[in-house]
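Predict the assembly for these two chains.
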Amino acid sequence: MIEVKNIIKTYGSGDAAFQALKGVTFTIQDGEFVAIMGPSGSGKSTLMHILGCLDTATSGSYVLDGKDVSRLSDDDLATIRGQRIGFVFQSFNLLPRTSVLRNVMLPLVYDAAIPLEERHARSSAALRAAGLSDEFFGHLSNQLSGGQIQRVAIARALVNDPTMILADEPTGNLDTMTGEIVLGTFQRLNEEHKRTIVLITHEPDVAEHAERIITVRDGLITSDSKNHKRRRALLAEASARQPV
Amino acid sequence: MKTKDLLEETVTALSANKARSSLTVLGIVIGISSVIAMISVGQGASSGIQSSIQSLGSNLIMVTPGAARGPGGFGVSAGRGSASTLVQADATAIASSVQNVTALSSEVSSRQQVTAKGTNTNVSVDGVNAAYAQVRNVQMDQGSFVTDQQSQSLQKVAVLGPTVASDLFGTDSTTADGLPAGIVGQAIRIKSMQFIVIGITQSKGGSGPGNQDDMVYIPLETAQLFLTGNNSVTTIDIQAASANAMTQVQNDITTLLLQRHNISDPTKADFSTLNQNDLLSTVSNVTQTLTILLASIAGISLLVGGIGIMNMMLTTVTERTREIGLRKAIGAKRGDISTQFLAEAVMLTLLGGAIGVLLGVGISYVVGALGLIATMISWNSVVLAFGVSAAIGIAFGYYPARRAAHMNPIDALRYE
């Protein structure tokens, strides 16, 4: 569960100080699929960084799974990120010239307690859950299409069994068709695997795939409601049979 | 992160840009191999010179006539060794009154034209006592050395050094010493006088002026009577009982000779003493300085190699900024990131160190085997070079690794 209370984030100091977040409060339950939507400059990226434990708030509290993470050191935040959060980025950020399986295993490398066989098993399971079949596991990351790359990135986000998958504009670098497939993957992970997904986007079309939409503008939440006209994306399984 | 993972990641990262990695390694290879090769040349020179000094004999003190001075204390110096101030009586006095002298031999040397069977050579002819063989460590190859009886009875006999023997009688590759058989017993002529060869000495090696193989030895008194015509001696060679006794023997000789020559001021002594240990330490100082000089020139290239490592690692860190951002986002701590980049730098230098050691040892061996310069591989320097290369990896890898570790993940992920 994610509980954010009255988060304020100020950049700079004195006259040059700029408040990117002016007091944001919300709660996300386990198993929700939430979109955080807002135009650029609204503070949604700042919110994403704080939710992803990449940055800490100037004031306010952030409780993740009952643990207050709002005042942790860099290395402690790194541990939290490694255990509780799975990132999916707009620019994929796969390691080049590295096999699909090794890319997915990467988060587990930083946890020395997990033996090699278990890493393999968990990575393979995550890849299958993300809709990639076994034949791709040995491929190098630069031999894949955009949709496949993003699904490898989703598998990498899944592999450490996180509390939340945090997707930052995951369809931003993809064409509409491929974007649909990726969003469908998120929907399926949410429904079939009960994954908590937080989707950051500036596009209403993309946000409408979530079951709840939080709109941010000028550092404040302007609306937070259930999405009544939820769109169904193409299922990854259906499209996986066609070349992507 | 497990060590195995770290190694895998390091190998993957370094092999991603093989040309750059190998050129960087080359810098270290050149640095390490030149340090090893230079030190081995220096050590080889040093041990070569030391062994040739030691071949002069052990615990040796040499007394030579000093500069002759005219009356009045400001006389013209005619140069050390030119005067005839030492006589056989001085040698006898030293032998009888100085303690801890095990052997003593006077020497009268002069350069002479020596002929045999139509061939001739210009060599140093030394009139010596029988004890010379012991003092100066002369070993016989054939025949026997001169005796004191031969000296007293003024016999015209000669012992040849191997170089003189081959110059006069030619060589024969079928014999063990390379000399034709039957030289002993043949006659040679020195200053138109006939001398009978009674022995040939073993080769001591060495070359250049004062080559111990290019010598003819004849009895002392024979030389004084027939060659120089007076009873002065050019050198008195003294062997001290032990290395510890050398200073005492040297001091006692100085005191005795000053007294015998009626000289009260030691600075005006008409002779000088040379202690083999002094000679050795002077020479080893020189060669050591030379070795340090060579090694530090090579060390500069090692430093340049290290800077090459740093340069490459800085480029790598910048290029892989987004990868660093990603790794931090998925849970890598600062220590994980810096360890990874440090491991890459250390692996490069260790690889360079290993190849450099092989190359350096190879160069030293080849240079030594070709006979260009004597080399001696010092295993200390090999171990040192390896340690230095690891240290360079850490020293020059530290800054780039630290830079990577302290990157802000948000900025790193956004980096284009």
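Residues 276-319 of chain B form the longest helix (44 residues). Chain B is about 55% helix and 15% strand.
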